[in-house]
UniProtKB/TrEMBL annotation:
It comes from the Bacteria. Belongs to the short-chain dehydrogenases/reductases (SDR) family. The lineage of its organism: Bacteria, Pseudomonadati, Pseudomonadota, Alphaproteobacteria, Rhodospirillales. SUPFAM superfamilies: NAD(P)-binding Rossmann-fold domains. GO terms for molecular function: oxidoreductase activity. This is NAD(P)-dependent dehydrogenase (Short-subunit alcohol dehydrogenase family).
Length: 259
């Protein structure tokens, strides 16, 4: 699909990190873009800096997502591109023993469900809305739209304490081919990007020495990924009409260790 001013796009989690880099790349290519994000302050700042539209959106609720899509379409028209970057996790062992007291504590089920709801269900919720809207469009160059989801290296090599996050991101990987098959007859493509360790705002709290050590774990190039590299791959997926139903690792060949 050619990216130009005729193309409308939505990026969830678009106010920072991988999402913001993707917003910038889409805008630089000429697309009209709506940023979906929970953080109003950073969302509006990102919109002002990029020329995108900001729409406050909580991907974990139907009402918020439905309202956000309606608002974005009123501003930019029906989207042909959706990039899902919204997500998050926690770090809680499945079961742990307190070293001081010997007390055994289990991973709270509500915290496990929260991470799945945000990542897997939130992504699927946005995918269904976008796909339904794309189905109302006439194909351009043989396709109606492109859906891009975001997984993580944790989907296949989750570290200790990442049970919920690993399950959530593995769910995104697992549903990619199925959704692509569901939407094939409607000329809508679906791919997932599986990033490794990236230098995003979430890493800003990490000491410089630790960031350097993390980068050194990457076989080549031995550094953290740049958000612009994620964005570049997202745009290539949009442009390359034969990419469909697949998950693409973007990680410098790293395979995460247990901790």
């Amino acid at each position: 699909m050619k990216i130009d001013p005729s193309v409308s796009a939505i990026v969830t989690g678009g106010a920072s990190g991988l999402g913001l880099a993707t917003v910038r790349a889409l805008r630089d290519a000429g697309a009209r873009v709506a940023i979906f994000d929970m953080n109003e302050e950073t969302g509006r700042q990102a919109a002002e800096a990029t020329g995108a539209a900001f729409v406050k959106c909580d991907v974990s609720t139907d009402d918020s997502v439905d309202a956000a899509f309606a608002t974005a379409r009123a501003v930019n028209g029906q989207e042909r591109v959706l990039v899902c970057c919204a997500g998050g996790g926690n770090a809680i062992p499945t079961v742990r023993r307190d070293k001081a007291t010997g007390e055994i504590r289990m991973f709270p089920s509500d915290q496990f469900e929260r991470v799945l709801k945000l990542n897997t269900v939130g992504t699927f919720r946005c995918v269904t809305r976008a796909a339904a809207g794309m189905m109302t469009l006439d194909p351009v160059d043989g396709e109606r739209g492109v859906l891009i989801n975001t997984a993580s290296a944790a989907a296949t090599e989750g570290q200790m304490g990442q049970a919920a996050y690993s399950a959530a991101k593995a769910g995104i990987v697992g549903m990619t081919l199925t959704i692509a098959r569901d939407l094939a007859r409607e000329a809508i493509r679906v791919c997932t990007i599986q990033p490794g360790i990236f230098d995003t705002p979430a890493m800003a709290r990490v000491p410089a020495e630790m960031k350097q050590a993390l980068g050194a774990m990457v076989p080549f190039p031995p550094r953290l990924g740049a958000a612009e590299e994620y964005a570049g791959l997202a745009l290539e997926i949009v442009r390359n009409g034969y990419l469909n139903g697949t998950t693409i690792r973007l990680d410098g060949a790293i395979r995460m260790q247990p901790r």
